[in-house]
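User: Could you check the structure of this?
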Amino acid sequence: MSEEKVIQHTKGAINALAKKDKSWKDRMKEFLYEILIIVIAVSITLWLHNWNDHRHEVESVHNYLAGTRDDLETVKKNLGRQLSFDSSLSTYYMSVIAQIKKGNIDKDALDSSGSQLLNNLYFYYDDSRFEEFKYSGRLQLIENKKLLTSITRLYITDLPFTKDLVNTTYDNKQKDFQTYVGTKLGEFPAIDSVMDVSKIIDQSDVRYFIKQYGFWIHSNVSSEQELMKEVDNTIKEIEEELNK
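Assistant: Sure, the predicted structure tokens are below.
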């Protein structure tokens, strides 16, 4: 009901009480009738308003979840590439560590893949959709609290943790490579080039570098595998919610 109609019926209710030519009982009936019209009309208007707001909220959540699913699919691809790279790197480092322990170094394999000591791959992801939805206060519109927990844990804790873990490892490895390895090679090697690591492998600080980053990268791979499972599970949860 429009504001004009509400005013009209309000005046009608007041006028009903003022009619001297009608009995008190008739005046009260007419007054209550006008009030009833106002109450019903306002109630229906509020219900429609609330229903429309709820419809917009549901639509907003649906669009957010659909977008987040797409974002996590991209995260999954990037994480898969990171996991593949780090697994290959870990295999090389752990192989060299095993050879050092046995005292039997495969010099050709060590040198031909020596650039693995220098290679880095940094992990990044886009969290702009999550941040915008969070700061707008609309995250609480997600009624599935289990799903809400999964999404917030990913974006607030687990993704940032893995990003910091991986990128800090490679930042430090790049600096330490020059300190413990690069300076002993005589020149800074090119990426994917043969590196004469076998000539310096017996030096303690070179072995320290290999052991330290071998175990760190191996540990990173385990963290990335766990994160991949979590991303997969969250995507499945989102799909289930969207298909309800």
